[in-house]
Structures are given as structure tokens and as C-alpha cells.
Amino acid sequence: MPRDWPPGPVWVVLPTYNERQNLEPVVAGVRAALSAAAVDHTILVVDDSSPDGTGELADELAARDPAVQVLHRPRKEGLGQAYIAGFGRALAEGAALVIEMDADMSHDPAHLPAMVSATRHFDLVLGSRYVPGGEVRNWGAMRRLVSRGGCWYARMVLGLGVRDLTGGFKCFRREVLEALDLGRIRSQGYAFQVELTYRAVQRGFRVLEIPIVFTDRAVGHSKMSRRIVLEAMWMVPALRAGRRRFTK
């Protein structure tokens, strides 16, 4: 990692809902990867009152490690709103870079140093499954079809060159999040990921995809649902119809 980069603290936002079995290993993985790269960082767990005790475990981790913080939310309001709450906390605390990643171990923390380093020349770095060198492991044929098809559909409708529009492993410069008018975003799941990247491109920010290996969760249950897929289907053309509102 260049000595003068990153220019300030890096915050990693981990939204959780019933991720007790995955939380401790993913936090340990993030701490190890960023500490080895000598990156000043904070991990923010955003828990939506998980009934399995994820929030309580997060508090225990935070009590043992000052680099871990917890944001408790009173109820489950969806992935998008959890991220927005986390982004707001990170920006308020002075984050220079903000990373979003899943807490289910599908995003390998080993990719974090490369993503942070790439923001030296780019404003938004995407961990991409669908650029050369990227890979998806342990998904069935239908899940692969839905993901690939969703990315293709969004690319065609929105006219973007980004290959992995539905991925949720991203590193933002703070300037990007400050420009995206986060308070107006109500989408969740796939649509939330598409909307963030689309808004960033529309505002002229530099976007880079770097290859990652995505491995499906081994523990717990996927949060993917028909509602998430349907939301993305109608939200994508809605974004295109309103594209003039997102330009500088």
C-alpha cells in the first residue's frame, strides 16, 4: 500500500440480520487483511435487531476491539437502508473511504487491500465476479442465471459498461457517497447495488472493476427473494427514465 494512501480512515460497513455464525470470522478476516496492509480502519456492524443474537455478539466483539463499532437498528428495514445508515455514520466520523461488503463470508477480505489501493486513481472500485479473473463458486445453475441475467438486463437498459452491476462488494471515496443524495434512495438488494453504481457513473465518477472470487455462503440462509428480483426489474427502467435528475 502506498504510504500516502489511503488519505484517511477506511470504514467497512457490514449489515447483518441473523449472521451470528458468520460475524466473528468475517470481522477477523477484515481485521487481518487491512492490518497486514497497514490501513487505518474501523468495522461498523449494522444490525437490524437480529433474533439470533448477532447484535449481542457484535457488542461483545466491539468491547474487545476498539476497531469494531456497532449500530443497532430497531427493526429489519432492508439491506439498502442498513447500508445508508452505515454510510452516514462512517461519513460523520470522518471516513476517507467506505467499503460495503456482505457479512456472510461470500466476499473474501483478502481482496480488500487491492480495492483500497485502486481508489488512489478511481472513485468507486467494484469487486467484480464477471470481469476476467473473476469467479463464482458454489452457486447452482438457476442462481447463476438470475445473477448474470440481472447484470445483462441492467447494462442494456442503462447503457453502462460495468459488468457486475448487482454485486455488493464496493469501495467508495467519501466524495462519491456525499454526491449521491443517499436520503432519496429507497431500493434494496440488487436494485440498491445497481442504483449506487448508476448514480456514480451519471455524476462522472471514475469506476473500476477488479476481479474477485465470490463464494456462496456456507452457513445461514440467503436473503435473496422474489421480491428483490422483481424490484430490480422495475427499478432499472425507472432509473433510466429519471436519469436527468442524477446528472451534475
Task: Give me the secondary-structure category.
Answer: alpha/beta
Number of spatially distinct domains? 1
Contiguous uncertain segments of 5+ residues: 244-248
What characteristic shape results from the CA principal axes? Answer: globular
Continuous helix count: 8
CATH evolutionary superfamily: Spore Coat Polysaccharide Biosynthesis Protein SpsA, Chain A
Mean pLDDT: 89
Give the SSE order as H and E letters: EHEHEHEHEEHEHHEEH
Beta-strand residue percentage? 15-25%
Give the beta-strand count.
9
Helix content: 40-55%
| Sheet with the most strands: spatial strand order | 3-2-1-4-7-5-8
Q: State the end-to-end distance.
A: 32 Å
Return the CATH architecture. Answer: Alpha-Beta Complex
What are the salient characteristics of this protein?
about 250 residues, Spore Coat Polysaccharide Biosynthesis Protein SpsA, Chain A, about 15% strand, 7-stranded mixed β-sheet, two-stranded parallel ribbon, globular, alpha/beta
Summary of the model, kept short:
The chain has 248 residues and is α/β, with parallel strands linked by helices. The protein is built from 8 helices and 9 strands. It has helices at 20-36, 54-64, 79-92, 112-118, 141-158, 174-179, 189-202, 226-241; strands at residues 10-16, 41-47, 68-72, 97-100, 124-128, 135-137, 170-173, 207-211, 213-215.
